[in-house]
Write a structure and sequence with these properties.
Layout (H helix, E strand, L loop, with lengths): L5 H4 L3 E5 L8 H8 L6 E5 L10 E2 L2 H8 L5 E4 L3 H13 L4 E4 L9 H17 L2 E3 L5 E4 L4 E4 L9 E8 L2 H13 L4 E6 L8 H9 L6 E6 L5 H12 L4 E5 L12 H5 L2 H11 L3 E3 L2 H11 L12 E5 L2 H13 L9 H8 L12 E2 L7 H9 L6 E7 L7 H7 L8 E6 L2 H14 L3 E2 L2 H21 L18 H10 L7 E4 L2 H11 L3 E5 L13 E5 L2 H11 L4 E5 L5 E10 L3 E8 L2 H6 L2 E5 L4 H5 L22 H16 L4 E12 L2 E4 L2 E5 H5 L2
Parallel strand pairs: 1-2, 1-4, 2-3, 4-5, 5-6, 9-10, 9-11, 11-12, 12-13, 14-15, 14-16, 16-17, 17-18
Antiparallel strand pairs: 7-8, 7-10, 19-22, 20-21, 20-22, 23-24, 23-26, 24-25, 26-27, 26-28
Length: 681
């Protein structure tokens, strides 16, 4: 299929099929929206053609009578008529089409038939189709508004592209971005995504010189690997901020902790971040992120330093507090920097970072330049109220050499009219400007996350497919034996097929031991009553064996106390192999405190995953406890993820718990699930 979306987003001519004279109908609204298009626009209405008024019976007639190239067909007709009209448009030379209407698979059998017919036309003709079920798209710099939403034609041109699953969200985000002083290069709602998907549009934007940043809104992902590839290509050149919806979608509860925690929302967010996008929490944060990212981008860095300059202490404290909570480094300024500031500021002001100016004065530009020049500062964040008698922020930024000297965010407080004027001037300089400390913090977080992500991806090491899982069913003993080949430590143990073998194992290992049912079909042994812990004597062993009541058991040395983690590698139905880490046991499900990566993952990338957990303090010697060796952990997770990638017949590998002890990591339980076992469970 032709991947070029130029006929869709940059057509030389547009045909509106189903154009109507009745003002309330979609065809009439779309004709009005496209009236400002500087290229050729023709109207098609097979029931009421009027060539003298520019209304033709078909696209072919319009082309024959006007001689115009009509690249794009906009269909404003019922779903049942769309397939035949699309075929006719393709035959008449249209290479792209937009269908806004609903009435397809979402309404049941009748709609499914209409959708199948559409797919067939797309496959047979190669025409690119956006929709159905979307409110359209717009390209402001071209005067192209293929949208029936009032106000879309007023969105100013600029550098931010909006790629949204929903046509309504596309418009809402574009309006919000415009209200924040930004312009739009392309705003598109994917809708049903029958042909053109978000990944297709991302690939198109990678080659668009007008686009400097991309806002991505995702609901469902039809092709995970395709989206990942497109995001990786685009984010290497241009920043992407992504908003993923579906937080409350937990799906079908899986049979394991890993599957239960790797919900579509959680996995999509992690994978999109892994592919290079900055993931945001809501639409407000997305606007703040793109206001910054579309204008400045930090150099790749593992831990960029932020310099804060505030003309008012209170708002500056709000900003500092928030970025600190976000994990952004605010380094103490170098002695030479502080000495320079001491010559510019009253002695009572705080000057180590954040820098409080008291009330800004004529020294403000030099002060900005001084902080920007500190060797530990990679990004400057400034807050000031609009006080023309005290400081001209635009002139100060220019005198300080922003943003050429250093990437900077400026937050201005004041009345809308004053702020809007200053913001417009600063944006012309290339300095992203917002209107509150929290918005500045959002922008800072996005810039830092983007810099860290690019540094991580530039690390050089490539993930490798690892050792495949051996064939046949794997119970816990066999699973742990395999883990040992990956370098994972496990407790001493004996697989026992009789009471006599169990007693011999206890004698050899000494107490205390754990006694567990040994059956690859039982994944949750504790819930099945298949585990007895702390067994020390032969009598206690007999009691445990009676309680478990199984033919085969595992007798295993008890591990010392520690912090329990879990590591799971599973096959996500959308994105394929992923690896997940989090707290062990039931805490993982209760708190959903996990980090996720695509598999296979490099050891360095995996080593960073514990740092994303809210419970990470527990792994750093909390109250004298053990300290996680990040390198050891990264190698273990990388090996596990590589094993899944190397084993097509395996659906899941899980270690839960993986105990952090004073002597390192020990796998206390292990599960390997094959596809056929999952099907027959």
């Amino acid at each position: 299929m032709n991947g070029d979306l130029t006929p869709l987003f940059n057509p030389s001519g547009v045909a509106v099929i189903g154009a109507s004279q009745q003002g309330g109908k979609l065809g009439a609204a779309m004709a009005r929206s496209l009236a400002g298009f500087p290229g050729t626009r023709v109207l098609v209405n097979s029931r009421n053609p009027d060539p003298a008024a520019g209304v033709f019976a078909s696209v072919a007639d319009a082309r024959a009578q006007t001689g115009a190239d009509l690249d794009l067909a906009v269909l404003c007709i019922p779903a049942s008529a769309c397939a035949s009209a699309l075929a006719e448009a393709a035959a008449a030379g249209c290479r792209a089409a937009l269908i806004c209407a609903g009435g397809f698979s979402e309404i049941g059998a009748a709609g499914e038939e209409a959708e199948r017919a559409l797919r067939q036309v797309v496959e047979e003709t190669g025409i690119r189709l956006l929709g159905p079920n979307t409110s359209g798209f717009f390209v402001p710099r071209q005067g192209l508004t293929a949208s029936f939403v009032p106000g879309a034609a007023l969105v100013p041109p600029g550098g931010i592209a909006v790629v949204a699953a929903s046509g309504g969200v596309n418009h809402a985000l574009s309006f919000d971005l415009a209200n924040a002083g930004n312009g739009i290069s392309l705003g598109v709602g994917i809708g049903a995504g029958l042909d053109v998907t978000a990944a297709d549009v991302l690939d198109h934007l990678a080659g668009d010189p007008e686009t400097t940043g991309v806002a991505l809104h995702l609901e469902t992902v039809p092709d995970g690997p395709r989206l990942v590839e497109a995001l990786r290509r685009l984010s290497a050149e241009k920043p992407v901020a992504a908003l993923v919806v579906g937080r409350t979608d937990v799906g079908d509860f899986a049979r394991s902790h890993t599957g239960a925690l790797a919900t579509s929302w959680r996995t999509t967010r992690a994978v999109v971040r892994d592919a290079g996008a900055v993931v945001v929490e809501d639409e407000r944060e997305l606007v703040d992120a793109l206001t910054a990212l579309s204008r400045v981008r930090l150099r790749p860095a593992a831990d960029p330093g932020l310099g804060i300059v505030t003309a008012q202490a209170g708002p500056g404290l709000l900003l500092a507090d928030r970025v600190g909570a976000d994990g952004v480094r605010v380094p103490e300024l170098a002695p030479d920097t502080q000495a320079g500031l001491g010559d510019l500021l009253p002695p009572l002001t705080f000057q180590r970072n954040p820098v409080d100016t008291g009330r800004p004065s004529e020294t403000f530009p030099t002060l900005l330049e001084t902080v920007a020049g500190d060797p530990e500062v990679d990004l400057l964040a400034v807050y000031a109220l609009t006080e023309p008698d005290s400081v001209d922020l635009v002139a100060a930024a220019q005198e300080a050499g922003l943003p050429a000297a250093i990437p900077a965010i400026i937050a201005i407080g004041g009345l809308d009219e004053e702020v809007r004027e200053a913001r417009a001037l600063l944006h012309k300089l290339g300095v992203p400007t917002v209107t509150s400390p929290s918005a500045a913090a959002n922008a800072v977080r996005a810039l830092v996350a983007d810099a860290r992500s690019r540094a991580e991806r530039q690390g050089g090491a490539k993930p490798v497919v690892g050792i495949p899982v051996p064939s046949g069913p794997l119970d816990e003993h066999a699973a742990k034996t395999f883990l040992e080949t990956l370098g994972v430590r496990t407790p001493q143990r004996r697989a026992c097929g009789s009471r006599q073998e169990a007693h011999r194992a206890l004698a050899e290992l000494g107490g205390p031991v754990a006694v567990k049912v040994l059956d690859h079909r039982i994944l949750h042994k504790t819930e099945a009553g298949g585990v007895s812990l702390g067994v020390r004597t032969p009598a206690e062993l007999d009691t445990a064996l009676e309680s478990i009541g199984a033919d085969r058991v595992l007798v295993e040395s008890m591990a010392p106390a520690g912090i329990d983690l879990m590591v799971g590698a599973t096959r996500d139905p959308v994105f394929g192999p992923v690896v997940l880490v989090g707290l062990g046991g039931t805490a993982a499900e209760a708190l959903a405190d996990v980090a996720i990566r695509l598999a296979p993952v490099t050891a360095a990338n995996a080593a960073a995953m514990p740092g994303e957990l809210a419970a990470r303090a527990l792994l750093n010697g909390w109250r004298g406890g053990p300290v996680l060796d990040r390198r050891e952990f990264g190698e273990l997770v990388s090996a596990l993820s590589g094993a899944l990638a190397a084993s097509p017949g395996i659906s899941e590998i899980e270690i839960n718990p993986l105990r952090l002890t004073p002597d390192g990591l020990v796998a206390l339980d292990a599960v390997v699930v094959r596809h056929e076992e999952e099907d027959h469970a």
